[in-house]
Amino acid sequence: xxxxxxxxxxxxxxVVILVLFGALMVFSASAVLASERFGNSYHFLIRQVLxxxxxxxxxxxxxxxxxxxxxxxxxxxxxxxxQLILLVVVLFADRxxxxxxxxxxxxxxxxxxxxxxxxxxxxxxxxxxxxQGAVNDWKHTLLPVGLVAGASVALVVKxxxxxxxxxxVLVVAAMLFAAGMRLGHFALGILAAAPALYxxxxxxxxxxxxxxxxxxxxxxxxxxxxxxxxxxIAVGTGGIDGLGLMEGKQKLFYLPxxxxxxxxxVISEELGFIGAVLVLGLFGVILWRGLRAASGCxxxxxxxxxxxxxxxxxxxxxxxxxxxxxxxxxxxxPLPFVSYGGSSLLMSLIAVGILLNISQHSS
Length: 363
Hints:
Number of helices: 12
Helix content: 55-70%
Radius of gyration: 20 Å
Number of strands: 2
């Protein structure tokens, strides 16, 4: 008798808690700002809840779609081409916050780089499964992976969105490692990327200023160092148990974009060290259950897919929290499930839906 398929309830519960908690914190972080900008303190909350409902519905749908159906070249390559086209098209879209990151589709905004993360994971899982046993073949494996991933990363950097490009690099590196790439090749890749990274920082005025602000934010406290200093104040003010929900002060026009990139600072201020650790703990649960699904999966495609999706979610969270705590230079990257943003929330929930389906087939 075939065993009954059951999804990972722990993973499901952790994600739902993060989504509901995220909606609550979006309201707390944005109510005053929304009232000032739109005359409606519920403006951002309503949009976040609508995206959450759609995303959770799609997640449940993906739970019931056999992940092995994604390993289809008639799906993988058109999706890969589409995301590359969207990354080019968005460069000609109107600028917002000094970047070309969003396509405006009527009342909605869509961020193609969020789709890129998901499509790149599926492509790499499919391609590396085909090349199993020859992962270290430069000509037939590493070169094609480098060209596809490099093109995607370069277009995201061009937007500019250095944070998402860093998250993409983490995902690619993790999947290549899981596929069996030798450590020596990683070292060569780092050496090859170092000059490009140096030039990207040195010859981009805004990136260079952010790097200097990262090294010493107090050298320009009212300029490039302002955002991270306000984040430090929010995190430090929270103490052990925080000031209380809705009681934070830094979100009141001190901390820029408190409901998006720096929502973890608001959490730390209002719910303190305890609240921050609980959020990190939930991402730890996602890491644990995602890798557990990968290790129990019986086929190479499913294992690589689970690893990629898990690193995609947890790696982005790690980058976001590191920025808030001053461990990385300031960059615009949301906290998955928690930050305001429809594209990020939808793609993250689709990723979880696929992970949950993989968990059904794991031993």
